[in-house]
Amino acid sequence: MGGFWCRGWRSVALCGRCWRPPAWPGRSVESAERGLRRLGTWKRPSGARGPAAQPPRRPASSNPFQRAQEDEWRRRNKTVLTYVAAAAVGMLGASYAAVPLYRLYCQTTGLGGSAVAGHSSDQIENMVPVKDRIIKVTFNADVHASLQWNFRPQQTEIYVVPGETALAFYKAKNPTDKPIIGISTYNVVPFEAGQYFNKIQCFCFEEQRLNPQEEVDMPVFFYIDPEFAEDPRMVNVDLITLSYTFFEAKEGHKLPVPGYN
Amino acid sequence: MSTAMNFGTKSFQPRPPDKGSFPLDHFGECKSFKEKFMKCLRDKNFENALCRNESKEYLMCRMQRQLMAPEPLEKLGFRDLMDEKPEAKDK
Fold it and tell me: How much is the ipTM here?
């Protein structure tokens, strides 16, 4: 029980824990005191630190039980720290992985980019043309420099109203002596109006083969979403330009396909 | 496709067509219908609303010649034209 030990010392020396050291009958008070002072845990009555004193730290005690317990605590601390560090690294990795994962999600669910309502065939069936809003759609045709087609629209413009399906034609001719495969993409300006421009069927994003000296008509069947008339940002938009560009379809070349760009 | 300079502005996202791509009319089977449609457009000053019958006929030609997946015309937005036809027949 350590009858020679002052009670105050004990609680302070062992950092506030109520723990009784086993009695060491052989020791004297002074040597114990010296030992504690050496370990630096003994709080001086004055409160001042000695010259070479370390800041109070948990000592490596000589008691095997305490040492085992402290080892246990240290081990537990290390595992907790490892888990926390792993969680932090995991969070960082998740934030990097979110980009391709979101892209994958968009491609599988088809919610690529725009948050406009789905253009199902039911919507086309039931949509009502907004007859008082006439929009002029002009057509533009471009060809990549390496593609030797003659590609042009067959009408310069067409006047449509939102909610009405419309047909337009382009013409492409292959003036060379060998078959050429082309693939096209399109662009709509102004960009904001592009989200209302829905193509039911066209000739884009698929390889189109033209035999030598062949000329074909390429139709575009489209409509402008009736919600265009209700969008306040589109109030001043009266002109929409649809622009198609043809590229030569070569092996290994990938056209930027619709989806998450 | 936006240029590299416009970093902050939204770029255009091309969307695939709802019903896919038209097969090419290599043999010009529906060319006469197309010519009729284009003539109508030129006559009516390129107003689409006045030439919808011709566009409907072009699409029907395509469907008959396997150049387009057959679909009821209402689903292609020609419901008003379909409603007119039975009335015209009655009259």
Answer: 0.82
